[in-house]
Amino acid sequence: MNNRSRLLRTTAVLLGAALTAVSLTACGGGTDSAAKPETVSAADIRKALDKPTTLTVWSWSASLPDVAKAFEKEHPKIKIKVENVGTSAEQYTKLQNAIKAGDGGPDLATVEYSAIPQFALSGSLVDLRKFRFDALEKDFTQATWDAVNVGGGLYELPLNAGPMAMFYNKKVFDQHDIKVPATWDEYLKAARKLHKADPDTYIAADEGNAGLTESLIWAAGGRPFSAKGDTVKVDLGDAGTKKYSAMYQKLLGDKLLSPVAGWSTEWYKALAEGNIATLLSGAWMSGTLKSGVAAGSGDWRVAPLPTYDGKPASSVNGGGSLAMLKESRNQLAASAFLRYLSAGKGADITQASGSFPARSKILQSEKFLGEKDEYFGGQEVNRVFTDSLAAVRPGWQYLPYDVYAISIFNDKVGKAFTGSIPLQQGLDAWQQELVKYGQEQGFTVG
């Protein structure tokens, strides 16, 4: 189990308790087309920046303090207090507790795209159409814009993107005369060839990663989750999900995946020594390889995510931005910082730190696309990621309690990754729990 999985599981009980109080407000409150809020003028926002104001931001982003300093320099009456109160589920638990108490929360907080519905449908976030940010749609890629729109409302401006790709060790592939797989059938053949040649070498590692599972189901055309108002659908037996589970079961059944826990010391060592030959992940994995597997510089490359028929089809893994809490008393100044972060100079700062951008203009820039990455042997990796983002399958939705869903994934599906049960059986068990939990929160779940 990787560190993120451990964190999610240990916070599941606390998070569930917090969600009980908040999710019930979603019943009757979420709509398929949220009423447009009354807007404020750009002049009002400018006036707010001339008043001494302190904004509190909860985020685990390493680049955000630099963005805050740059913004303060341009607007000296605004002070931004960036607080790291924990990552992912740990922060969400504290955020839910603050929302429940009606006090103690930040003005802005990092919320991953997968968690937006959970907070938006409960009425906890400000609809950013209030600041006329819906006019910025063309500034961002369709995949990321879709991710921040829930129930007709706009709850973030996209900041980064996590288009899926296959990172592979070219040195290992060349050593075993393996062609870069374009389809999942070719991927399976490569996995068998590698492991047969060297029993200590595996095509990949996965001991039960909920986020990866969702992304692979998405790329396969699965649409297991949907929410419309207070009605939620959970169907982990749809055609796309079964297509994924049938393919992945072959990897699990033939023991072609490394048992090494992701993000562990052993995992980094296996990547460095070539015992794990590919990583199926979002674009952000390039930074992880550079920092954690520095010795592999020049050995790794990036390729499109394999597909079932050889035609481009992808999904997203990770990514998020800042959302504004309704309880914020500094919404005008906070809106200016949001725009600066995602659509202004702040976006350049986060991009320089290694974040893959969500802005259309950047992704169409030949300068950006043509950047050669020495870690990946001088490959123009941005072209691969950008093509992947353009090939993201439309129509994906997350559950309005996806954070909880991820937290219990290993309890229900984990046995499939140890070979104790078939993968589809584990997914069916996960579905049963998600239906039960949703009903307990007051949703109508089918």
Structure description:
It is a single chain. Helix content is 44%, strand content 12%. With 446 residues, the chain is α/β, with parallel strands linked by helices. The chain has two domains: 3-161 and 318-363, 3-Layer(aba) Sandwich (D-Maltodextrin-Binding Protein, domain 2), CATH 3.40.190; 164-315 and 395-445, D-Maltodextrin-Binding Protein, domain 2 (3-Layer(aba) Sandwich), CATH 3.40.190. The strands form five sheets. The chain has a four-stranded mixed β-sheet, with helices on both faces. The chain has a three-stranded antiparallel β-sheet with strand order 11-6-12. Strands 8-9-14 form a three-stranded mixed β-sheet.
Fraction of residues in helix: 40-55%
DSSP summary: helix tally = 21
Radius of gyration: 22 Å
Largest β sheet strand count, sense and barrel closure = 4 strands, mixed
SSE blueprint:
Layout lengths: L2 H8 L1 H12 L18 H7 L4 E6 L5 H11 L3 E6 L5 H13 L6 E5 L3 H5 L21 H7 E2 L2 E2 L9 E6 H6 L8 H14 L6 E2 L4 H10 L5 E4 L2 E4 L4 H15 L3 E2 L6 H9 L4 E5 L2 H8 L7 E4 L16 E5 L6 H13 L1 H8 L7 H4 L2 H4 L11 H10 L11 H6 L1 H9 L5 H18 L3 E2 L1
Parallel strand pairs: 1-2, 1-3, 7-10, 9-14
Antiparallel strand pairs: 3-13, 4-5, 6-11, 6-12, 8-9
